[in-house]
Amino acid sequence: MATQAGLSPAAGPLIALTDVTRSYAMAGVVHTVLSGVTLSIDSGEFAAIMGPSGSGKSTLLHLLGLLDRPSAGSYRFAGRETATLCDDDLSTLRNQALGFVFQSFYLIPYATALDNVLLPGLYSNAPRAALTRRAMELLDKVGLAAQAQHKPSQLSGGQQQRVAVARALINDPDCILADEPTGQLDSATSVEIMELLATINRDAGKTVIVVTHEAATAAYARRQILVHDGRVA
Ligand code: ADP
Ligand code: MG
């Protein structure tokens, strides 16, 4: 829970964006990618962020995931204004409270499935043996206990994404953020990954936020958030 990150348990939404803008200056010209975004997501929600390519979905997910900061506006995570946090505090919060899943898996190619799952746990002070046990439990949960010693190249795309989901859970985060998690998978494998995320939402009570432009993927979520031209409908 968020208390792990040194936060007081918050009343109110897990995520609260108020009038958030993200713009980039390029060659002296300011490009506004997101503007006037006001959005709140409660703990335990399963939400899909949808919209056409280039609409600002990934930019929004990066802000939610504390990988990037708003250019203007407020982002409160678990009741705490993130603008007041220094980069180290943001990293700590990100590592403890959030888990990430990306379209291209981003596994370390020379590390085993087990080590890939373990790695984000090394930032905490948990003893190695306990971490190994937890990583094995997570691999078992995603159906890959037998592949723990396999390298990513020895796994199918769907299996690699399962490893990434297990890795996202290693620090027992409040919230899983996934950017087009089924974008490289066939439809049968996509169903497996979305069912896995649904289970994590339902059984473990994790907040799950999935960016997708596929209606079939978004249908797993209980709430659809539409992004269009940098605005949330
Ligand atoms: P989506 O994920 O919906 O396809 P993105 O959030 O990746 O869209 O991008 C939205 C817009 O923001 C695009 O026009 C993209 O070129 C622009 N953009 C994203 N990141 C940057 C950046 N670091 N610098 C400049 N422009 C960016
Ligand atoms: Mg994107």
UniProtKB/TrEMBL annotation:
**Organism ancestry:** Bacteria, Pseudomonadati, Thermodesulfobacteriota, Desulfovibrionia, Desulfovibrionales
Q: List the InterPro entries hit by this protein, alphabetically.
A: AAA+_ATPase, ABC_transporter-like_ATP-bd, ABC_transporter-like_CS, MacB-like_ATP-bd, P-loop_NTPase
CDD domains from the xrefs? ABC_MJ0796_LolCDE_FtsE
Keyword check for Nucleotide-binding, yes or no. Answer: yes
State the family it belongs to.
Belongs to the ABC transporter superfamily. Macrolide exporter (TC 3.A.1.122) family.
The superkingdom listed in its UniProt entry is Bacteria
PROSITE patterns recorded: ABC_TRANSPORTER_1, ABC_TRANSPORTER_2
GO cellular component terms attached to this protein's record: membrane protein complex
Annotated ranges, domain ABC transporter: 15-233
- Could you tell me one molecular function GO term of this UniProt entry? transmembrane transporter activity
Keywords, comma-separated and alphabetical: ATP-binding, Nucleotide-binding, Transport
Which SMART domains does the entry mention?
AAA
- What name goes with this protein? ATP-binding cassette domain-containing protein
SUPFAM superfamilies xrefs: P-loop containing nucleoside triphosphate hydrolases
* Source organism (scientific name): Solidesulfovibrio aerotolerans
Entries under Pfam families matching the protein? ABC_tran
